[in-house]
Amino acid sequence: MRQRVLDAARDLTCEAGWDQVSLSAVAARAEVSRPSVYKEFGNRAGLGRALVVVETQQFLAGVTDAFYPGVPDPHDCLRAAILHVLEEADGQPLIRAVIEAARKGSDSLLPYLTARADPVFDAGRALVQGWLAARYPQQQTESVELAADVIVRMTISHLILPSDEPHLTARRVATAALRLLQ
């Protein structure tokens, strides 16, 4: 039942944007009762959070593949992972729907991607921080944490407000972040 509800919520969000998604519509699409949706997710915000958590886990699996085993040069490996994020986000219907709505100035699901520490920032930062720590074992933890934070924040910022071609953005973000570790 949980997966049917999440699938229905994702489909409705992709079709009309999160602002237009109601728990009643999700329940109807998933062919479950509205009280069942409330019991499972608590409220609309709980459903939104669960939806973002699932999408984040799937999305970061692809980033992990870009990092590991990775190419020998850390800059090239990081650039490839950032480029993966920038290009893959456009191919993910839910992420694309949230970003397009944000660019138009409206979408209440956007805070899960940009402002709330969890699940996107924490999961992304943990992934990047682990990779940096493995690649730069001599660095202090604070430097690795700062670089990971910069990478995640800059990458998400460029998703919402792209400034250049993805490959150029990926190179610039990787270069700027790795300079923090020099």
TrEMBL record:
Q: Is Secreted one of the keywords UniProt gives this record?
A: no
Instruction: Kindly give the InterPro entries that the UniProt entry links to this protein.
Output: AlkX_C, Homeodomain-like_sf, HTH-type_TetR-like_transc_reg, HTH_TetR
Instruction: Give the transmembrane region(s).
Output: none
Q: What Pfam families is this protein classified in?
A: TetR_C_35 (PF18556), TetR_N (PF00440)
The answer to whether the entry has keyword Transcription is yes
Coiled-coil intervals: none
Q: Which domain of life is it from?
A: Bacteria
Q: Which residues bind DNA?
A: 22-41
Q: Which residues form the signal peptide?
A: none
Q: Which UniProt keywords apply?
A: DNA-binding, Transcription, Transcription regulation
Describe the location of the HTH tetR-type domain by residue ranges. 1-59
The record's PROSITE patterns line, in alphabetical order, gives: HTH_TETR_2
PANTHER family the UniProt entry points to: HTH-TYPE TRANSCRIPTIONAL REGULATOR BETI (PTHR30055:SF234), HTH-TYPE TRANSCRIPTIONAL REGULATOR RUTR (PTHR30055)
Q: What is this protein called?
A: HTH tetR-type domain-containing protein
- According to its UniProt entry, this protein's organism is Streptomyces amritsarensis
Taxonomic lineage is: Bacteria, Bacillati, Actinomycetota, Actinomycetes, Kitasatosporales
